[in-house]
Amino acid sequence: MKIEVDMYKDIRQSFLAGESQRQIAKRLGIARQTVKKYCEGADHPDARKPYERTPDIITEDVKQFILDCFKADEQEHLRKQKHTAKRIYDRLVEERNFAGAESTIRKAVKNLKGEQSVPPQAIMPLSYEPGEAVQIDWGEATVYIDNGKTKVHIFCGRLSYSCDIFVQAFKSPNQEAFLEAQQLMFDFFSGISKRLIFDNAKVAVKEGFGQYAKPQDKYLSFSSHYAFDLDFCNPGKGNEKSLVENLVGYARRNFLVPVPRVSSIDELNQKLWNACLKYRTTHKVQNRNHSVKTMYQEELRFLGAVPLFRFDTSKTVVVNVDDYSTVRFEKNNYSVPTKYLRKDVTVKGYGNHIRILYHNVEIATFTRCYSSGQTQYKLEHYIDLLQRKPRSIFNAKPVKENVTAALLNWGKQLPGGNKEMVKLLRLCVDYGEEKILSIKNLIHSHVVPTVDMVRAHLNETTEPTVIYISPNEVPVEAVDLTEYDKKYGMAVQE
């Protein structure tokens, strides 16, 4: 019979009140042995002893045989040639005349393996010296750039001793962005740790994994220049860089909520940079004795110096400028000034930007495009060509893709036609379209606009300097000009 809690309470209280065990048993209609078991509180009806029974057939000799099989497997170190529970059972039957069931051996093997191995969930607490290591990782987030919903890749770095952080956003986690992000991280930390801990991403690892990983050639060159050792994690072992794993989530929840709305990825990165600086000055990590700022200032003395030569992290190609005054880089086109037509130029692709150079002189920069078949034009690259071919101005792609409809419609009112419109566009290049449109609003709608009117507003005259003098400060004597007026025939009022 199962004793419920109410009856157990009655037994205990009645016994403590002086009622005998016999009387309690008779009154409750239960066995006296049951009352004896519970009356003194030495047992509880809800307590259940676990069932533990080792089959008699599993003797110490059988256990030792199983452990010897484990030891033999470990010595051979052959992953595909190990004892299974079935093979151990067969050997016991053949070699030891075992008479038990296979299921009994399977259970014994499972239990003994559990006793011999460390659970995979176990995590070793780690401690790092100042300047010893930095952990890095990638994450993903969603933001609004120029009113468009965009997925960006978040690069996160964390010093293992002080827990100071670095976070920046890139449009792609490619090798260019990977190297550039670390370069910026060294600038932010004002130094370089002795080793860098990362996973086995293809941007870093050519082949292998963990301690057997072979780094990509460019990454090996990069690490040699900045003098740090590479420490790659084992596959699926995020706990080996748990500090930065936690940072990815922290950055999403704290730096990117609410979802940022920015005009460019540069603006987003400036916000992230400032957020990291604020974290350094205000944050204290749980279970740490000192603040991040205090520990970072201590660690800074142990970081290696950033070298003066800046490693080129870009993907670089040399291309010929086509007849449309554009160059092609990874499925997209970018414009250059028309004077470089049919010349070879150098295109450098960075994580978020494109730089185009001619004889080591920068001639154009763009935000890097990661789609396909797109062309980015800059109006200033085509302004000289438009002056030669003014009839194309309202159909020219560089104009239609860079000038607002408001300015184009206003330009059609210019009395000088297309040539006058070219002059207006030159002013846009020099002063910015927003400035020119603000002048448009100053000109009365009934007045026919001209470029000269716009120029007049741009050439703002300074107000004349006025000197206020008190009449008492400089004495002025009256002069009689009558004779002067008579001599030169000036009219004299009577």
Automatic annotation (TrEMBL):
Gene3D superfamilies: Ribonuclease H-like superfamily/Ribonuclease H. One of its GO terms (molecular function) is nucleic acid binding. PROSITE patterns: INTEGRASE (PS50994). Residues 126-305 form the Integrase catalytic domain. InterPro entries: Homeodomain-like_sf (IPR009057), Integrase_cat-core (IPR001584), IstA-like_C (IPR054353), RNaseH_sf (IPR036397). It holds the Pfam family Mu-transpos_C_2. One of its GO terms (biological process) is DNA integration. NCBIfam families: transpos_IS21 (NF033546). Belongs to the transposase IS21/IS408/IS1162 family. This is IS21 family transposase. It comes from Desulforamulus aquiferis. The gene is istA.
